[in-house]
Amino acid sequence: MKSAHAMPMLAMLAAVAAQTGCFWVTTKHEGELLRQDVDHVQAKVAAQDETLGSKVKKLEAVLEKATQLLTRNSADLGAEVSGLVRDGAELRGLVTEATRYTEEVKNDIKILEMRQQEIEKRIAVLEQKVSAPPAQSADQLYSQAKAAFDDKQLDKADKLFTYLIIKFPGHDRADDAQYYRGELRYRKGDYETAIGEFQRVFDKYPKSALADDALFRAGEAAVKLKWCTDARAYFNVLMQKYPKSSLAKKAKTEDRQLKAHKGKKRYCKS
Prior knowledge:
The chain has helices at 6-20, 28-128, 138-150, 154-167, 174-187, 191-204, 211-224, 228-241, 248-260. By secondary structure, it is mainly alpha-helical. The chain is rod-shaped. The chain starts with 5 loop residues before the first helix and ends in a 10-residue tail after the last helix.
């Protein structure tokens, strides 16, 4: 039974509640239920925190591994890039060196060509001093030179052929005279000089009917010297430049034989 003092208090609370539009009275039982609910919620929150913490730790571990992998890959990539840069620099250096070497070779070739021209001029001057018969036509000179050649008067033939080349360099018989200068030396066994004379036929008179003959004879002279590489070069130039020549097939046969002798010192020095 509520006291008389409590009754007015309850009435006053009821009046206040009526004025505010809200009235909530919590009993002891309801308080216990509320406490249980709060404890349950707190337990669930704690469990969620624990689960979340575990996931955070796993995430941190994954991030750590990813960071290490990225760092290592970056280092490897950096090393590869450095290697490529180094290789590129080395390649550029080689290209530069090759270019410089090529230019040096070109300059050397120019110098050699100039020296060769000077030597040829000097030779021409000396050859002009060769005793020759009185003024004759190119055809007369050629006839006398060829007769001396056939008669095995090689020195006399050489002088006449040389005079013809000097005095009539553009004549139709000039290439013939040059060819026979090679033949003269070949017959004397001076194969190295003969190669040079035959080479001049091809260089100065590439359209000559004797150009293919000169290349073939140059190849044969090189074979005599066991210069297989040079001989094959002459035979191959003949086949390429004059494929319709009657000597092309023979040159091919010679080239095949020399190829078979490659590396055999008995047949080839070079």
